Sequence to fold (117 residues):
Amino acid sequence: MDLRFDCFFYHVSEMDRAVSFYRDILGLRLSSRDVVARFDIDGVLFELVPDGPGRGGGGMLCLKTHNLSETREELRQLGVAVSEARSVENGTLAYVHDPDGNAICLWQERSECMATR
Fold:
């Protein structure tokens, strides 16, 4: 069996709203759009796939940042609810949710945390 990574995807109930969130709020680069919206995140394919309301969930997108405090504040200023930051063994993380309730982890590695102090 020859299996390879294809993409990471979320089901969304309203494509335009979801594309706007990932492109305009999170600043991800939309690489193509037909029935599915495709984003290139550092060479990784992330897709938004249309589906009915309430279908969101499963999996999680994790986005790395160099300064979690600044990222959290910028998102708040854009009207996005952001969880409190939580320290873990190798860094700090917080969470936001897209319009369909899909969780997105915001991540700052421990080495980056030390550099921003």
Observations:
- Strands lie at 8-12, 29-33, 37-41, 44-50, 61-64, 86-88, 91-97, 103-109.
- The chain has a mean pLDDT of 85.
- The chain is about 25% helix and 35% strand.
